[in-house]
Design a protein that fits this description.
Layout lengths: L3 E6 L2 E6 L4 H7 L23 E4 L6 E2 L10 E3 L3 H15 L16 H8 L23 E3 L9 H9 L5 E4 L6 E4 L15 H5 L5 E3 L12 E6 L8 E7 L2 E7 L12 H5 L14 E3 H4 L12 E3 L2 H19 L6 E3 L5 H15 L4 E3 L4
Parallel strand pairs: 1-5, 15-16
Antiparallel strand pairs: 1-2, 3-4, 3-5, 6-9, 7-8, 10-11, 11-12, 13-14
Length: 365
Amino acid sequence: MMEKATITIDGRKIQARYGQTILQAAREHGIYIPVLCDHPALPPEGACRICLVEIERQRTLQPACTFPVSEGLVIYTHSPKVIEARKFSLELLLSDHPLDCMTCEATGNCLLQDLAYEYGVTGDRYQGEKHQYPIDASNPFIVVDRNKCILCRRCVRACAYINGVEAISVFYRGFNAYIGFGADSTMQDSPCEFCGSCVEVCPTGALWPKMAIGKGRPYQLQKVQTVCAYCGVGCQIELQVRNNRIVNVVGVENAPVNQGFTCVKGRFGNDFVHHPDRLTRPRVRKYLLEGGKREGKERGEWVEVDWDTALDLVSRKLVEIRDTYGSDSIGVLTSAKCTNEENYLMNKLARQLIGTNNIDHCARL
């Protein structure tokens, strides 16, 4: 069998690998096909029917996210028939969806809103019963609003395939179907680890971080890319900042280490940055700067210094202790929050410069 198939999308011939879906091949070649339930990091679901395309010699429209490529496929992604089907699917979704976009937290960051705008769907074509689910704010990190859920099952797949916890599933069927947690309980009482992967992939405002509520629209936030400070894995995160305060944290898409996902600390544990007790500059005891010694049990007051002064003081004291009491009078304890490279340098510092084997690691204790 040939490794690649030649397919035609909207009159453009491209090479697609066998085993790819039409959507994957289109993305690889920069061809736009709208989606709601699909996410590049998750296995395909085929739930939303927004990615329907027209394929020659196929009796019906087919979902691009699950239809495999084969030699000679001729595909139309925006034919009148396709556009009509997508618009119909969006109208059905919006018939049971709150139309509160003016006050919704997800405004400006909602895939459903973007598609409704793109296809001119207003949400008032089909009138009928609407769900009125209570909002679940029982846990400290995430607000769950099932009224805004479109049952795309992204959160279900993220919990199962990214985090491996399987705390989220679909309960009941048909109009009564809804996303639930654990044994149909609250997120707080389920096996959820609050990693926030479900929030990361949710295309609407059904799952939203509490820390970001009322803090600003996407266009009002400054985005700062950095590395999570909690461990040595090196996950890349994006800090969303307004008025010099972190209001939300998301994973960096396509980051080599974490591919856009984080743990609970990386996503929700950054409030320490604004804690009034946080040290922002090095501090040393005043008597050390004055060249004196501690008197009795008095340890003296702290004073702020620059990094050069602090590091110079530490290095001088280490040399003084080593030369006075011997190398083994010094011990070194490294941290799991450092990278492997940093811990290796601490190993060289202890063994080669100080001359001691008294070195240990906090993760072993």
